[in-house]
From TrEMBL:
<protein>
    <submittedName>
        <fullName>VOC family protein</fullName>
    </submittedName>
</protein>
<feature type="domain" description="Glyoxalase-like">
    <location>
        <begin position="10"/>
        <end position="123"/>
    </location>
</feature>
<dbReference type="InterPro" id="IPR041581">
    <property type="entry name" value="Glyoxalase_6"/>
</dbReference>
<dbReference type="InterPro" id="IPR029068">
    <property type="entry name" value="Glyas_Bleomycin-R_OHBP_Dase"/>
</dbReference>
<dbReference type="Pfam" id="PF18029">
    <property type="entry name" value="Glyoxalase_6"/>
</dbReference>
Length: 130
């Protein structure tokens, strides 16, 4: 048995939800629907089960530390974006306001940091384990 999905969503917290949603709107090219407490970004071009990303306003948000450090806020999840050209993807993410993490663990992909401190990865289309 499995869930009968009609869509799926990832929620990211931020103390500057509007700024973070604008970053992901530009990065992904998705459509932004702004609410009072959260903003939803939807891939309107997608067929099949819809995907969306929600940015939730959390006034006392504490950014995670990457990589993990004892006694510091830990990441709970991160996003992976598979692209045709990793270096071009990194350049574009930088132009949108991301930064490159000081810590990289593999030369096939890049760990990036969004404006609210969430790590995300830019990866090639197919990784060796796929």
């Amino acid at each position: 048995m499995a869930l009968d999905l009609v869509g799926w969503n990832v929620v990211l917290d931020s103390d500057r939800a509007d700024e973070l949603s604008a970053f992901y709107e530009k990065l992904l090219g998705w459509t932004r629907f702004k609410g009072e407490e959260y903003t939803v970004l939807v891939n309107l071009e997608q067929t099949g089960t819809p995907t969306w990303l929600t940015i939730q306003q959390v006034d006392d948000y504490v950014p995670p530390v990457w990589p993990a450090t004892l006694d510091k806020q830990q990441q709970m999840a991160h996003l992976d974006f598979h692209v045709q050209d990793v270096e071009e993807g990194v350049k574009y993410a930088l132009s949108c306001g991301a930064s490159i993490s000081e810590h990289q663990y593999d030369d096939r992909w890049r760990v990036m940091i969004d404006p609210a401190g969430h790590p995300f990865c830019i990866l090639p289309p197919i990784m060796p384990w796929m």
